[in-house]
Predict the structure.
Amino acid sequence: MIYLDNAATSWPKPPEVIRAMADFLERCGGNPGRSGHRLSIEAGRAVYEARDAVAELFHVADPLRVIFTLNATHALNIAMCGLLRPGDRVITTGIEHNSVMRPLRALEREGVQLTVVPCRPDTTLDTAELARAAAPGTRLVVATHASNVTGALLPLLQISRIAHAAGALLLVDAAQTAGCVPLDVPALGVDLLAFSGHKSLLGPAGTGGLILGPDVDTGALQPLVRGGTGSRSEVQEQPEDLPDKFESGTPNGPGLAGLGAGVRYVLQRGVERIRGEEVAVTESLVHGLARIHGVTVHGPGDARERVGVVSFTVADMSVSEIGLRLDDEFGILSRVGLHCAPSAHRTLGTFPEGTVRFAPGLFTTRADIEAALRAVERIAQR
Amino acid sequence: MSAQGVVLFHTTSAALRAEKVAAKGGLSAKLIPTPRHLSSDCGISLCFDWPDKEKLAQALEAAKVPTAGIYPFEGT
């Protein structure tokens, strides 16, 4: 079996991640931050270690500004629903995932003014278009770091300059880049960064987070969920302290222990090195697919402008048939369809049919890629 | 045994961060259940050797760890 669906969730996970989760359940089964006994402290420590590792990965000076969530969608919802009020202006791009578009469309119905800046047909962003749309007084710019359909990377530094010139904060959806593309949050001028724990950070499902940059006034950011935090129990109002304000309820202790181990694994291997390997694998995949008669590879041609997410179609063949044959005949696991990002597919001209998506991961070998290319070649011949 | 002190916090995460900051500064400190007579916050506090008070306070301030007060503490 060859797993090429790492953009949905990474698999396999390093043994360190599995061990950390089992260890949490066996050794520190207490409720982190609720009691003062040793098992509670041990559990709290495991969660804190994950916070510390994430802060190191994203160059965040204060680990208390790392908020843990269920996934990137949850983090994006906290940022957008917590910050935007009726009358506020928000700008986003034409290739966003539904995790961005659905909350924004709901906020639009409540009176938030939404502008969607279209992308080029290969899903790259023309920053001049964004600059034209970013009128002074804009509250928030929301941009994905990389398309989950084509892997196209957006230029974060330029986007943050445009956002800040308009007086806006920048929220970045790093679901596809956290752990495989270097991300220095302060240097890039990213104010809020939503990440997924179960993709390139190699943690389990049910983990993700939101980074709150130093310029974000957290007093103005309303929590999505309120409740017990284990702190300031004498008051019935939600505390303002970080990270508790945004982390009500018992956290996913075993999951976060696994995430911490995943992030440590990534840090040890080195994000720069991981990125280099990803570019090489993506390049051979893109070039190999483009050589097959009848195959169209969507998105930017240069592997340095994309992450390891490659979408393709085969002339006169349905994507679901391709996906099924890849699985049935070759044991190759891909994802077909719209990938929860209809606007990216409209941009590419692949709506509503969608594409076949190959997303190699940290453990994909050159032999896996060659086998996948041979399989597509066979299928394209019918 | 020298006199002890205790640092209180509003969040467990801050207490855990403080434990690491203290260890990095070479200061001996231990997380304990928050003494009930000092705070009604549930959770944990950092117990330390009272003579280290200034050093610890400075280290926590430099690392921007929010605290809820530092008190002398008589025994666990």
